[in-house]
Amino acid sequence: MDENNKIKVTLPDGGVREYPAGIALMDIAKDISPRLAREALVAKVNGQLTDLARPLERDAAVAFLTFEDEEGKQVYRHSTAHVMAQACQKLFPGVKFAIGPAIADGFYYDFDTTEPFTTDDLGVIEKEMEAIIKADLPFERFEYTRPDALDLFGKAGQDYKVELIEDLPVDAPLSVYRQGDFTDLCMGPHVPSTGRLKSVKLLNVAGAYWRGSEKNKMLQRIYGTSFPKKSMLDEYLFRIEEAKRRDHRKLGAELELFSIQDEGPGFPFFHPKGMILRNELEKFWREEHAKRGYSEIRTPIILSRSLWERSGHWDHYRENMYFTKIDEGDYAVKPMNCPGGIIVYKSKLHSYRELPIRMAELGLVHRHELSGALHGMMRVRCFTQDDAHIYMLPSQVKDEIIGVINLDEDIYKVFGFPYHVELSTKPEKAMGSDEIWEMATNALRDALETRGIDYKVNEGDGAFYGPKIDFHLRDTLGRTWQCGTIQLDFVMPEIFDLNYVGEDGQKHRPVMIHRTIFGSLERFIGILTEHFAGAFPAWLAPVQARVIPITGRHAAYAQEVTDSLSGKGIRVEIDTRNEKINYKIREAQAQKIPYMLVVGDKEAENKTVAVRQRAKGDLGAMPLADFEAMLLEEISTKSY
RNA sequence: GCCGAUGUGGCUCAGGGGUAGAGCAGCGCACUCGUAAUGCGCAGGCCGGGGGUUCGAAUCCCCCCAUCGGCUCCA
């Protein structure tokens, strides 16, 4: 390239600048502004993330990314992961490196070590990282041929890197990054030098299987995060602490909603207040389903082994099931409701005129989840699915799927939380031919596209009998949990020889949908608790109002108010304890009761109540009847 | 199930080889009070369970169990 050649650089603001060909991106940043040079972490050249040290040879659109940009942030964290790996290389000679990506809010790196890391090691590693950062080592990029790279990492004993290279396409370009004495296979890009990294915090260690398969060796994963400013790190750590305060397990105990006890790991207890919440949800659910032409059934929890053999659960789901013996016979506790529901369908002959049949069941299922997987109400070993099975003509499939999607959206809307949708395809352990799976998967995809819903594909994650659309909700720490699901099934109707009588008087095979909206009452209540931080909307609140007499003198009027509210179907409590008003309010606030009704001399005299709303505070006095009307309206509209 | 951590009264936590402490909650008494903690007193724990070391174990060691954070799995 001729030194005298000029190239044109187009910046995001549309401005065009000329530079000599071969100029380093960093020098362009410096030319634009010293501040940009200081803050830029990486460049985007024609949409391609690129190290700042690399030269620019021809005309290009260039953008400089800082920590404020999502991609800049990822590069920052990824570079931090490399620094952590370098620290581990020094502290734990012989350690092997697997992968170390940036993730939401941080990064991790997986190591193969002779001794597992302990929490104490984190501090030591952090110290070493600080030294590396202080040394301000440049991140240098090198291109390698495949044989050279294999030789480099092979000689270094880096088996995982060798495996990674072997799995790359033969003609793929290989890049290697080096800072100081640490060399890693990496696509890059990276920040210019380790000195760019400021506030680093290693958060925890965890075992993680190589390539995510439990068949592989368990590696040691260290999670951490990093920020360009200490204050940002502190704020992040504070946010995590904040989030823990909304943890449904903590709130469940504090608000006396539910609990999990040592006597029943994974088997939740619903306490009186949690039952109110649950019953309200069920009531709402029944209303919405009745409106949409669903009937409701209930099937037994224990059914014979032969049924589970026929359904395929025996072959595909046995390790998750509980078994029992009755007299001489083998039985299983149901892990799913479908076989029971199918028996109901088969109990009589069906005409094509009846279809679609939408049969719902709040079914209690038991599944043996791995002990380490249990998580509050989010993952338990017995739970109530708000299940339904839809039996339909092949021609009705698309409309029925869309109908379920609409129901999902309508119901989630009432709670106002965000969700995302995934489409899961055929798993390894599956029943049914590829053609059937293909057809079913296309039907789901088609319905999603018709409704214009954004979704992500989750390969191999379908149920063993069919592909599915999943609705994922977010908990307070950002973890997502599958709740609603729509599973299209051509397999069960076949195995169970389901049929309906068609127009032609002949038997035909219906198609089935398995679906849930809440997913499970338990998980949904967990999500709901965290979403509202325990401050449930009035229609769900276990106690909707608490009457607080100022002194014992006002107990009679307080009782009158309580009786009146209670007579109108409002869930109300009275606090006649011999305590000061501040104390009683504090406690009612802590219980997140939507309304506190303070009554003293003035209120007793005027037949009013002094209303305090848990979020808005003191609303002043109003006639009791007005308050009742207001609250009843709030309840019936399910406002939040 | 796997890796790491944790387990002390209802809750939050201190103690760390010599036989258990605080605050809050609970109970009793006094105060009769106007929008987030009135004061005093009382009661409450075989320190997750089982083994071992020791004259002596909540404390040290081993094995379980449960929980927390991940991995895997899933509603």
UniProtKB/TrEMBL annotation:
GO terms for cellular component: cytoplasm. GO terms for biological process: threonyl-tRNA aminoacylation. InterPro entries: aa-tRNA-synt_IIb, aa-tRNA-synth_II, aa-tRNA-synth_II/BPL/LPL, Anticodon-bd, Anticodon-bd_dom_sf, Beta-grasp_dom_sf, TGS, TGS-like. Its cofactor is Zn(2+). The keyword Flavoprotein does not apply. It is an enzyme of class 6 (ligase). It comes from the Bacteria. GO terms for molecular function: ATP binding; catalytic activity, acting on a protein; metal ion binding; threonine-tRNA ligase activity; transferase activity; tRNA binding. Residues 5-66 form the TGS domain. It catalyses: tRNA(Thr) + L-threonine + ATP = L-threonyl-tRNA(Thr) + AMP + diphosphate + H(+). Zn(2+) binds at residues 338, 389, 514. Pfam families: HGTP_anticodon, TGS, tRNA-synt_2b, tRNA_SAD. Binds 1 zinc ion per subunit. Its EC number is 6.1.1.3. PROSITE patterns: AA_TRNA_LIGASE_II, TGS. Keywords: Aminoacyl-tRNA synthetase, ATP-binding, Cytoplasm, Ligase, Metal-binding, Nucleotide-binding, Protein biosynthesis, RNA-binding, tRNA-binding, Zinc. It is found in: Cytoplasm. Residues 271-537 form the Aminoacyl-transfer RNA synthetases class-II family profile domain. PANTHER family: THREONINE--TRNA LIGASE, CHLOROPLASTIC_MITOCHONDRIAL 2 (PTHR11451:SF44), THREONINE-TRNA LIGASE (PTHR11451). Homodimer. Belongs to the class-II aminoacyl-tRNA synthetase family. This is Threonine--tRNA ligase.
